[in-house]
Every structure is written in C-alpha cells, then in structure tokens.
Design brief:
The protein is α/β, with parallel strands linked by helices. The chain has helices spanning 3-13, 76-83, 95-103, 114-122, 205-215, 229-243, 253-262, 272-280, 310-320, 323-333, 351-354, 360-363, 388-399; strands at 54-59, 86-91, 109-112, 126-127, 151-152, 155-156, 159-165, 167-171, 196-199, 246-250, 267-270, 285-288, 294-304, 336-337, 366-368. It folds into 2 domains: 3-164 and 296-357, D-Maltodextrin-Binding Protein, domain 2 (3-Layer(aba) Sandwich); 166-294 and 373-399, 3-Layer(aba) Sandwich (D-Maltodextrin-Binding Protein, domain 2). It contains 13 helices and 15 strands. The protein is globular, with a radius of gyration of 20 Å.
C-alpha cells in the first residue's frame, strides 16, 4: 500500500490512545454463537425522513476526517453538502469513553468496537438498526453481518465499518528463529525480557485466553471472551508471568512504531498498519498471524436509542460505508473495508490484498473483540462467566 497515506493517518492520530478499536468478537467462524443476554426493547427507526440539520457522532480518530488534518482526507464536508446535515464529531480515545458518552444522550451514532457494542446493546443505549434504510448495507461482506459483536436476537445493531487482526510483530534481527506462535510473548517471553510489548486494555486478556485455549485444552476454554473464574484466573496468571518481561504496554500506535525502530521493543502484538509504518521507517520487522489464530477488531456504526437526529444519523451510516468513502477511510486509517465494492475504489490497487479484505479463510482465524458478559457466550448453561467489569479489575491487578 502507499505508505504516505498511512503516515498521514499516524501523524493525525499519534497523540490519541486508541484503546480497543481503532479499531472489535468472535470471527466469522463464530456466527450463531449465543448472545448470553436479552436485549432491551428499544424501538427501531422505521423510515428516513427530512434531515434534522445536524448529526452528533462519536468516532475513532481518522473515521470522520474533515480536511483539517490533511486537505486530501475529507469525507465530512461532501456529506454535509449532499445531505444538509452538519457533522459534529467527538473523537474518543477508548471504548470505555465511548460507552460513557453514549449514556449522556447527546450523541446520535458511534463507531463502536466489539468490546463496547454488547455493553451498549445490553444497557439500552443503542437501538437496533433498520438495515433496509441503509442501501449500501447490501454490499457489506456477508461474514460481517449478523455476528455476535454487532447483532442480538436476530437483529443488527449497527452497520459494519472495517476490520483487522491483532498480529504478532517481531524484529527479524533480534528474534530468532522466526516465531510462528504466540508462545513468543507468553511461555517464551523471558527470552526478550524488557523488550516485549502488549496491547494496553482489559480486552487483551482474550489474547492470553486464546493462547490457553489452544495450548491447555484441559481448561475447557471454547471462546476467549467467555471465561469463568477458573479460566480467567489461568489467563491472569499467564499475563502476570508475561508482565515480568514487558518493556511497555502500548495504546498509541506511533509510539509502538518508534519502539520497534529503536529496538526498545522486539516482539509483541501489533496491527497491520503499524507493521506497514515500521517497515516504511526502515525497521527490520515482520508481522504474522500465528498458528493459534488471533484476536481482532471489527468496528460498527451504531445508532443511539435516544438519538435526537436519527434521520441524519441514518444518512451518515449509509454515506460512511458507501464504496468510495469506505475506501477512503480504510486507506487513511489502515484497515480492511467492510464494503466489498470499496476494494475497487482504493488508490492502491493492492490495498485490499494487504489487509485481507476479502480473505474469509484468514478472518475465520480471527476472534473479533466481544464484550465479556456474565452469561457465557460459548453456550454453557451451567456456568457463570466473568464480565467486562471483572476483566477491568483483573487488568489493574495484572499491571500492578
């Protein structure tokens, strides 16, 4: 892909903490997994009428560019001109912040990741989305529709925006032999004590759970987001052991690029965009999808249950996932677009291949971020699982 696009995106976002999204639950291979809770009865919008003149959105950095960061990156002003809906954007740094902001009732739509979506659905802060009112929904990759992280009880609660995998990146001159497993940052982390890095978020517990799911079958982990207390305890123990080798946890991806370039970090979790940036900066790195698979994120545009400007919100949903705009956002941000036709609109013909946009075999190995809830998402009826609040306390304990 053209590194100039991604470098501009990094410059725009490097000061922000992109915890849990920039990217969101189980991969396309997990379709049909039980939700584990009953969604509140929130009415769905029936038709798109006259616009209200504005729309208030919560977005990850890079998702609602208006040309202020780069004149070439502006899909907000064309939307305003076309619809008459003025866009008021609140850039959020974390999924927790998004959830809190949605509770205020001041926003109409949010680009939520999977570690926030179920919280918004369960709390009644998000409304089911009438996909018939979003014409471009028809061209969204089928594997992103009706997934556990964006639907409940057979109803979509948002429009998929983009997706990506959490990869294993390593310095090719420091980590030998070349790793093919997450053991490089878990069981073998001590080989690089002080130079291991990991994602700074409670949702990272799922990475440890995924590794244990593949390496310790006696724990009975079937879903990295459905952990009972014993299973969570095993993941916490693994992460506490890893903590001894951690040089730093990352959330600002430009800082991770710098750390790998300087050698402060030599192995750890990453995103494809970070690997591309590090390579462009001449860092000797390689990023892989390990043999155990990985966690990942899929972001979803959701509509607030108390939206004051629902007609403009629906117009925004259709605009932001239209082929040309979805391609612009994907290239600016560094992710696989959700609209299949977007791959025809990217400035770099190889972009969708680089980000595996239509590679369903690849994404079947990715367990997309999902909000942990007490009702076990793996279908167990005789167990109580740990929820996101419990994971948050555990993460504080892990980091010390």
């Amino acid at each position: 892909m053209r590194t100039s696009t991604v470098l501009r995106a990094a410059a725009a976002a490097c000061a922000l903490l992109l915890t849990a999204a920039c990217g969101s639950d189980s991969g396309s291979g997990s379709s049909g997994r039980p939700q584990g809770f009953q969604a509140p009865d929130v009415p769905m919008h029936k038709k798109v009428g006259a616009g209200e003149g504005q729309v208030n959105i919560i977005a990850w950095a890079g998702y609602a560019e208006d040309g202020s960061n780069d004149p070439e990156a502006d899909w907000v002003h064309p939307f305003e001109k076309k619809t008459g809906c003025q866009v008021n954007t609140k850039v959020a740094g974390t999924s927790d912040e998004m959830v809190s902001l949605m509770k205020t009732g001041q926003y109409d739509t949010v680009s939520a990741s999977g570690d926030a979506t179920l919280r918004l659905i369960a709390s009644g802060d998000a409304a089911p989305v009438n996909t018939s009112l979003v014409p471009n929904y028809r061209d969204i990759f089928r594997s992103l529709k009706n997934q556990p992280f964006n639907s409940a009880e057979g109803r979509m609660y948002g429009i998929p925006h983009g997706r990506g995998a959490n990869l294993l990146m390593y310095r090719t001159d420091k980590v030998k032999p070349a790793p093919d497993s997450w053991s490089a940052v878990f069981d073998d982390a001590s080989r690089h004590t002080g130079h291991v890095t990991a994602y700074d978020s409670p949702i990272y517990i799922a990475d440890a759970a995924l590794y244990l799911m593949k390496t310790r079958p006696e724990l009975g982990i079937k879903d990295p987001y459905a952990l009972d207390e014993k299973q969570l305890g095993a993941a916490v123990d693994l992460l506490k052991k890893q903590r001894e080798a951690i040089g730093e946890y990352w959330s600002d991806y430009q800082k991770e690029v710098s750390a790998f370039k300087s050698g402060d970090s030599v192995v750890g979790t990453t995103w494809q965009v970070i690997a591309n940036l590090a390579t462009a900066d001449k860092a000797p790195v390689k990023a892989i999808l390990p043999k155990e698979g990985s966690t990942g994120w899929s972001d979803t545009w959701m509509v607030a249950a108390r939206a004051k400007h629902p007609n403009c919100a629906y117009r925004w949903l259709d605009w932001i996932v239209s082929p040309k705009v979805n391609a612009q956002v994907a290239e600016w941000f560094g992710e696989a677009p959700a609209n299949e036709k977007a791959c025809r609109e990217t400035s770099d013909p190889a972009f969708c291949d680089t980000f595996h946009a239509g590679d369903e075999a690849y994404f079947k190995r990715v367990h997309f971020w999902t909000t942990p809830v007490k009702q076990c998402l793996d279908g167990r009826k005789d167990a109580t699982c740990t929820d996101y609040a419990r994971w948050t306390r555990a993460w504080t304990e892990i980091k010390g």
